[in-house]
Amino acid sequence: MKLDVRGDVAAAIAARRPVVALESTVIAHGLPKPLNLETARGMENEVRGAGAVAATIALASGSAVVGADESLLSRLANEKDVAKVSLRDIAPVLARRALGATTVAATVEIAARAGISVLATGGIGGVHRGGERSFDESADLEAIARHPVCVVCAGAKLVLDLALTLERLETLGVPVIGFGTDELPAFYVRSSGLALPYRVDDALAAARIAREQLARGAGMVLAVPIGAGEALDRKEAEAQVARAVEAAERAGMRGAALTPYLLGALGEATSGRSLRANVSLLRQNARVAAQVALALSM
User: Fold this and answer.
1) Contact 5, 110 (CB under 8 A)
2) pLDDT one digit per residue (tens) for the chain, 298 residues
3) Number of helices followed by number of strands (H, E) in the chain
4) How far is residue 273's CA from residue 266's CA, in Å, rounded to a whole number?
5) Helix (H, G, I), strand (E, B) or coil at 22
6) Which among 82, 102, 83 has a CA at the least distance from the CA of 22?
7) Is the separation of the CB atoms in 195 and 181 below 8 Å?
8) Alpha helices in 51-115, H assignment, sequence order
9) Residue 216 contacts by C-beta under 8 Å, 6 or more apart in sequence?
């Protein structure tokens, strides 16, 4: 894979200064215009404000770009037919020299190849509801297990089967660490009710665990609850998700289109509150990721 690493990112990696990778699917597919570009810039500003270098990752012109510039961010936010790139899609999109927005899975692999140890995102993918029958599982889980990157997120997306997602992460050897919480956060909801075996209360403690895990050649999840002021009510959100899942099943929705469909339905049902929550948790995760990257660089 050809890496196109922006100059300041390459210099920071070489000097072992803190760098935070950011995925780009949220720009092209996760948020509406113009909020998508505003949020992408906002996440990068959060990283820089905490003293780290931001590196948004995408595919363009036959290369994996590590550190998208303003022009590429704008293309990701505004062009039509930007490919959604998970692990299976990297080679075809590179070969076509197409523009691609990377999911957590693809971003984790590219970040690891570039030598970046920390990634910030919204919520990771996981095992879909009914996954015990459909085997519908995000590539994020195995990608995190295989690559030495600490993924800072608001847990897993609420529309998933969170209990099965935790089971799969355990099987894959991925530690899920609660950041100021003893329970798995559920994206827009502060807690899923699922207990986590490990907790830290600051970035330094998280970095100590990350240093040991990454040295094993494997990744980890640092699960950060959304701020209380922006969180959705758990019962209300769960009821809306159940309705959306039923509608998706009637429509025969499967595969990569399912999660965006469910999140979109949840956004409509909550009159946009889930959208505001999404932006809030993305920026918060970028800040925490920068703090962890700083602690790892000491």
Assistant:
1) no
2) 999 999 999 999 999 999 999 999 999 998 999 999 999 999 999 999 999 999 999 999 999 999 999 999 999 999 999 999 999 999 999 999 999 999 999 999 999 999 999 999 999 999 987 777 777 899 999 999 999 999 999 999 888 899 999 999 999 999 999 999 999 999 989 999 999 999 999 999 999 999 999 999 999 999 999 999 999 888 888 777 777 777 777 776 666 666 666 667 666 766 578 888 999 999 999 999 999 999 999 9
3) 13, 11
4) 9
5) strand
6) 102
7) no
8) 70-78, 90-96, 104-114
9) 148
Tokens coding 229: 């002021």
Q: Which of 23, 46, 109, 137 is catalytic?
A: 23
Q: Of residues 46, 132, 157, 236, which has the active-site annotation?
A: 157
Structure-token pair, residue 91:
């080679």
* Amino acid, res. 72: L
Residue 156 tokens, joined: 């897993």
- HSE-CB at 94 with a 13 A cutoff on CA atoms is 17
- Catalytic residue flag (residue 157): yes
Residue owning tokens 């918060």: 284
Write the CB contacts of 96 (distance below 8 Å, at least 6 apart in sequence): none
Spatial separation of the C-alpha atoms in residues 43 and 291, rounded to whole Å:
13
The pair of structure tokens assigned to 89 is 């899609």
Is 23 an active-site residue? yes
Count of Cβ atoms closer than 10 Å to residue 148 Cβ: 20
| Measured distance CA(258)–CA(261) in Å, rounded | 5
pTM score? 0.92
Q: What angle do CA 201, 191, 277 make, to 5 degrees?
A: 95
Enter the tokens of residue 269: 């049902």
